[in-house]
Amino acid sequence: MSPTSSPPRSGTVVGVLAGAGIVTSLMQALVIPLIPELPALLGTSAANASWVVTVTLLTGAVATPVVGRLGDLYGKRRMLLTCLALLVAGSLVCALADSLAPMILGRAFQGMSMGIIPLGISIMRDLMPPERLGSAIALMSSSLGIGGALGLPAAAAVAQNADWHMLFWGAAALGTVVAVLVLRAVPESRVRAGGPFDVTGALLLSCGLVALLLPISKGGDWGWDAPVTLGLFGAAALVLALWCGWELRTPAPLVNLRSSVKRQVLVTNLASVLVGLAMFVMMLVPVQILQLPEATGYGLGQSMLAAGLWMAPSGLVIVLVSPLGARLSAARGPRTSLLTGALVIAFGYVIALGLSGSAWGVLAFTSVISVGIALAYAAMPALIMAAVPPSETAVANGLNTLMRSIGTSTSSAVVGALLASMTIRFEGAELPSEQGLRTVLAFGACAALLATAVILAIPRHAPADASAAPPAAARPPAGARHPAP
Q1: What's the predicted TM-score (pTM) here?
Q2: Are 342 and 275 in contact (CB under 8 A)?
């Protein structure tokens, strides 16, 4: 029975793919409770231990567009299963690790699984009936925020009450369960791109992204004016310029830049960077407000577990609002949904300036920001897929996911620099000052407002159902599970 004619089957596909996206996003929250203890746990310095976080960012950024193109060429379900296999393998390596090197290796494998979300969105476009497509894509796109919000309290609970290795044994188990469900419930799409895989383009893009994201992540430690930081930024500019030139010349590029510079795609990707910049402030600041000592006068004195529980409802808000975002996109166009989301995010940061004095206030403003995130994330893939052919869906969504990652990485660096420059001395330790926290909240509001200005440049004539399904001829026949010969 085909997904287009069987609502229960369609619901199963959506549930399994969204579950895969949530499990992938859990990998980002998994080590947050461990960060202060990682140097002691792994027998290394704090600077070296930070690579446990940085390497996941780097491999995820590199893998996402590459995996997307491989999915367009050789099968999206096949590559989704490959990503899940890497997630499980990385989790097992980390579960057995007691030193830095294997931990970094395992986290690198986990980062490669980030391609699951754009692959899942692309599978939905190929397989889902039109009436289910908008809400399904909205949920899949928002799974990154859902997993991050729900994963933090879960990871904190495990870290506080069990051996830290259990976090990774649990991740391996979840990845295995999801892989089995994908095998049983998700058919392969027959929509394919033509041509060979662009190895040169993949290598150039990978080197350029590493050269760009590494100094963004480590510039605070190395110094923003250090020769290695400036040198890597310069190398990134050179290599990415070479990559653009190559992609425009090669007959089968990794990323079709001619499609990517279409106004709708280009502006949406730029807006995605800014929304990612604003969104990640919520992942960094409210938790600190909740955990800072009450004696500071602005901290709320919560434990890591309690702070995670206060943040968890934001993930539930995203689950509830994502279908509403799809309805708004269908009725008024995804441009309106994205614009509304950015404005709601900005409003959430503005009210945060007056609500951060209590845990209930933090819950209120994070919930408002989460409404905006759900609306914005629901609209992004719809705008992208309206402007690219079905055969380029996975790589186009992968590039959009990469833009969000660049935004979140930049946000982490900016927030870190701002908080490090505005501190107080408390019981022998340097803590973020109230002024610093409020400055970062204002930064989040400004990033969201700048995103709204950019979104206004998206063409108004975007289709109401911008994630339009491929033509019937491109859909797989009933029960199809394998690529066409």
Answers
A1: 0.81
A2: yes
